[in-house]
Amino acid sequence: MRALLYRHLEPEGRPEPGLSPLNTLIALLILLAVITVIAETEATLTGVHAALFSRLELFFGTVFTLEYLARVHAAGEDPRYRGLVGRLRYMVSIWALIDLVALLPFYFGILGTSNAFFLRLIRLLRLLRLSRLGRFSKAWDALADALHTRMHELMLSVGLALVLLVLSSACIYLVEAEQQPESFGSIPRALWWSIATLTTVGYGDVTPITTIGRIFAGVTAVAGIGLIAMPTGILAAAFSDAFQKRREQEQDHG
Amino acid sequence: MRALLYRHLEPEGRPEPGLSPLNTLIALLILLAVITVIAETEATLTGVHAALFSRLELFFGTVFTLEYLARVHAAGEDPRYRGLVGRLRYMVSIWALIDLVALLPFYFGILGTSNAFFLRLIRLLRLLRLSRLGRFSKAWDALADALHTRMHELMLSVGLALVLLVLSSACIYLVEAEQQPESFGSIPRALWWSIATLTTVGYGDVTPITTIGRIFAGVTAVAGIGLIAMPTGILAAAFSDAFQKRREQEQDHG
Amino acid sequence: MRALLYRHLEPEGRPEPGLSPLNTLIALLILLAVITVIAETEATLTGVHAALFSRLELFFGTVFTLEYLARVHAAGEDPRYRGLVGRLRYMVSIWALIDLVALLPFYFGILGTSNAFFLRLIRLLRLLRLSRLGRFSKAWDALADALHTRMHELMLSVGLALVLLVLSSACIYLVEAEQQPESFGSIPRALWWSIATLTTVGYGDVTPITTIGRIFAGVTAVAGIGLIAMPTGILAAAFSDAFQKRREQEQDHG
Amino acid sequence: MRALLYRHLEPEGRPEPGLSPLNTLIALLILLAVITVIAETEATLTGVHAALFSRLELFFGTVFTLEYLARVHAAGEDPRYRGLVGRLRYMVSIWALIDLVALLPFYFGILGTSNAFFLRLIRLLRLLRLSRLGRFSKAWDALADALHTRMHELMLSVGLALVLLVLSSACIYLVEAEQQPESFGSIPRALWWSIATLTTVGYGDVTPITTIGRIFAGVTAVAGIGLIAMPTGILAAAFSDAFQKRREQEQDHG
């Protein structure tokens, strides 16, 4: 019985690749629980369907508690977590703690307070974990490989972006502060406009009105294109490398 | 006669590559019919040119009916669709059904009702189909190849984007809900701002006004750049692979 | 004398690569003339500096007339354009016509009318031509090579974008037409919002207000990212190919 | 003593790769000083924490003066800067001058005037310099290599973007000038809208209202996508090349 649970709950215990049907079901339930948490913050929904939400909460709380207990029980199959001390060691492992933290709001009855939803959103982390084990594990590896190999280049382009952000804010502050003190009266205030322009989001709630300010804005917007082009180019080259490396490894094995 | 129709209407029946002149003409007519449907929704146009639109409708309805009958007739050349039963089998094939569905609004006289235009826009699918047969068939293959090979990586970046979207909405809801309950009063409401920022669309109809909210917004906008850079990088690497594979295949044949 | 002019004016007559000093000077003058045309449309500038602008116009008109005559004279060095008939043949060649058209507004005294500036902006084409001859000729080749090789893929992604544009407009029209007839009352009207969202420009002058409309808008914005990622990926792969081909050619020559 | 200072301050004097602990500390202090300068422009902060800011100013002024003197002293270890004349030669080297200029506002007591903060932001340049010496030096090389090799292609795409910008402004000026003279009454005025659209920033403070103007705007927005895709594609290909070259060099050494 414990061996069976272990094989279905713990991906390491499963001989076939991919997620077990039970873990797929749990992933779906986590997704539903996350959607419930999101919907629950909307007062117009909780007002009308209050009973539904409390019943869903009870359902998810019960299911995830049972899942947690089953995982603790099944962990005994793993030589590292054998016995009572082993179980305690399992319970303080990072993923078991995340499972537990996501359960806390249910037990302390602090549902509905403004921050409890954050503890329950932690379940998103559990989704990420399950995705790493299923069919997406190779995609994760390629992604992590690409990001890791080119980390310095990516950090450098983030650094250059920050320097650009400060310089652009300082320039616009210099020329627009007098005309629009509310929005450009200091460098920290000008940062808001600057980041919206450099990332090409462009809310338009704050825009320069002087001619020289608009010229700076144009230069900033064009620099923003470079800001997008640089990490995209680095990532494209990194993915190209990562995919090629993987192909060569597969050919060596074949 | 039927063989001639088959050769001109069915791309499989044509020895040369590319679209036959008749199919090119049909593609142009479909394009015109789609433009007519689009223009017809504008009341200021239908008011003035009502007669023109009803005549165009009659024209396209007649032409596409004749084309449909000709295709059904010509299908007999194909061993699979020989005889009356074969014709019926042809008529329930996916592309023949699309042809038929796009004709329905014409026959039921429900033109002008608010949803009928959707059935007629289905003709866009027919355009896509014709493009797959003509000079763009290789481009389609390269596109499909690139998307298919890197599907897991692309889905993973969509998944990460969704997690980012939820977290960003939750953060902004936490800090802005009190100040702007209308726009940030719940996570579903905050999603609207969040998606506009993460995709760098930035409508600006809703923007955070607290300092901490603006810092979150800045982080979200920068994360949005990563959100664009990641699929672009994956697609660039995938296209690079797909083009190279194709070149090697051509060299092997040469 | 004519041989000297030919060597300095016609890049084909120049043994060294790159632009001759005279052509570099002409390029600079064209740039200045274009800036003058741009500035001249601004009434607050022409009001104050009217004399300056008319003198600049006289100057550029004279210089470019002399240049035109010199080019016609020098063309005699080229065997194709020898003699009076040859000169006439030169004068109807595409680039000589562009030179002439850009001079017309000066001679007809129609400066200041609302469309004459367009004829004079044609000088921008002359700049493009000069850039093709100078140090950028290799960059032009790489660019043209990349665009040409992947033309079908790029046209296909433009085609998909148009289909996406129509579908997105049709969807938003369906759900928002009643609420905002002015902006979403027909598919052509909805196109304005649709193109601003799909290209991630996001003016924000028109935004959906219904919940279902906002969900469609979110999907459209995400599709817009794909719309940007696809041609970028294709171009990245195409440039990668073009640069590599060029390197291999250079190695073969070396 | 001087040799010790030299080894810790001058990266060339350090046998190990990367930044010395002392230089890492200085980099952190520079970062803090920059943040202080940024915060100091905000009147609501300087009003409340005036004493804190003047103490921070005193602290950074003293520390960076000591650092400057130590660097001048330690420069004697370098054969080029030996003796009094050598020290003077060091003091007029580009990086020593930047160090000095950033100190000036502190000594002239002109803090608080509107432009002095710019001299102090020059410290950002010092950060860039330190980053070139530390773990990011290879990333800098790859970046500079990619930008340098494809400089002509990148400049060409900037040039094409400028031509596009002028043409798009001229078109929108032609069709919208009468309706909105304030925003589109001349080509220079239209440039503001044009650059916001081509870079896909899209503030939305100025948008065309005529149908033909909106069609031009749509074309401009789509051209803007090409404007982003081209440099991104060039950079992606350039990084791909730069990384591959580097890998081959490392394999040759190994």
TrEMBL record, chains A, B, C, D:
Biological processes per GO annotation: action potential
Keywords from the named record: Ion channel, Ion transport, Membrane, Potassium, Potassium channel, Potassium transport, Transmembrane, Transmembrane helix, Transport, Voltage-gated channel
Taxonomic superkingdom: Bacteria
Membrane topology per record: Multi-pass membrane protein
Gene Ontology CC annotation, any one: voltage-gated potassium channel complex
SUPFAM superfamilies in the record: Voltage-gated potassium channels
Ranges where the Ion transport domain occurs: 22-245
Signal peptide: none
Stated name of the protein: Ion transporter
One of the record's GO molecular function terms: voltage-gated potassium channel activity
Residues passing through the membrane, by range: 20-39, 51-70, 90-122, 154-175, 215-239
Organism: Natronospirillum operosum
Any Pfam family: Ion_trans
Cellular localisation: Membrane
